Amino acid sequence: MKSLKMVFQNVGQWAHFVMLCFHLLVSHGISGREFKKQLLRVGIQSIPLTCAAGFFVGAILAIQIDSQIRDFGAQSYLGGISVSTTLRNLGPVLIAFFLAGRVGAFTSAELGTMSITDQLNAIRCLGLNPIREIVIPRLLAVAVSSIVLLLMGLLLSVVGGISIASIGLKVNPLQFIHRVPEFLAVSSVFLALIKSIVFGLMIGSVSCFIGFHISGGAEEVGGGVRRTAVVLVVGIIILDFMISWMGSQFVVSANGS
Amino acid sequence: MLELKAISKRLGGLPILQEVFLSVSPDEIVFVLGRSGVGKSVLLKTIVGLIPQDQGRVFLNGQATDCFDEIALTNFRRKVSLVFQMPALLDSLTVEENLLFALRKPFPEREELQKWLSELQLDVKCLDRMPQELSLGVQKKISVLRSVLLKPQFLLFDEPTTGLDPVGTRMMNDLIVKSVRKTHSGCLIVSHDVQSALEIAHKIILLDQGRVVFEGKPFEFKQCQLPLAQAFVEGIVAQ
Hints:
- The complex is a heterodimer.
- Chain A is mainly α.
- Chain A contains 10 helices and no strands.
- Chain A has one domain (32-242).
- Helix content of chain A is 86%, strand content 0%.
- In chain A, α2 (32-43) packs parallel to α6 (130-167) and α4 (78-116) packs antiparallel against α6 (130-167).
- Chain B contains 9 helices and 10 strands.
- Chain B has a 6-stranded mixed beta sheet with strand order 6-7-8-3-9-10, sandwiched between helices.
- In chain B, α3 packs parallel to α5 (136-148).
- Classes of the chains: A mainly alpha, B alpha/beta.
């Protein structure tokens, strides 16, 4: 009961923090130089690894699905099923996990270290607001980078699926692509887009929230990074469930009408 | 004038500061001496509002700070700037970016920064370097310069000479004196470096168990009969 109360308290504080950031962003704008710098640090530098991760996610799913459908002689459906599954469900989740570990944990550790080494207090003592100067550029950069990286990762996951299908599973790439429209509705692409945006915003806001509130010493920074990873992984799964469920309800009601 | 009236603070149930009164005038250097853990850093953080006091009030030019809203507090901190014990430079920015970080446009010309650096006997090349590539002493100087460039009315220093060698200590003291002369700011330094206090302070305050037990000029401190004051002075003699 006590831990449940604490969870709600933390969620409330996180919501308040996000609102405060939004308010400051609207009222004072953003430090463009810091935003660009962070975009380069967390975004551009993560492109190769995210693309690699996306590629292999698509490849793994293609192999797994192929082993399931091959016995039924349904290999011609491989492209449709694997791309649909990748984009709708596993792709966004797995790439978001990767970004939570790489970008989220990095941001949380950086802000936590700034907090325990009095860098955030020094900013306050220079007559500046650390949320405006430090947190908002990071939050936006992480969120924007995560959204873009997720979309890139998803694109590469399709490329990974096609590549492994043609090289390893002896499926014609044209045949692979040909069946995709049968399985991949516009709603699936839309769902992938929604998930990418929601996961990106979550990675940015949660990592900044936890990092900003770290105090104490090195142990607390370690604890904060672990908390960030756990909260993000659990949060991503819960949000994935909620979006998928709402998406399916929407599709059902659209088909019904 | 910066004034503290009856400031009290308890942390973890223990009294850290007990009815502390002190004042700092423009062009004045005030040293607060005391043993480690006596609440010197808490005193500074209380002044700038990083830690709220339990009782008492802080006044800047006769205006109480406890009724300040967020914007007024931000403005207050530009007038009363605290330099931390550790340099607390932003490690994702270069030295030059750190120095310009808090300044509103127009930024000082690079020549002005170079002039300050040469006064601090620092190489101009360090402007393009990252803080972690510099020694602690250099980082501390940059940290002081970052606050001085804001031209605050009062500069607060937390242990400015801790971790510095004797040469570095002398240079830091010179920098503090120069900054006060140039900007006509008042200066409040908490430290246990009694030698520096005797050299550059106009007034020395001794804290013991959260209370002010001595306030006077450096020569008066030397003659003070309080055991703690004598222990501090004898510490120098022993050195």
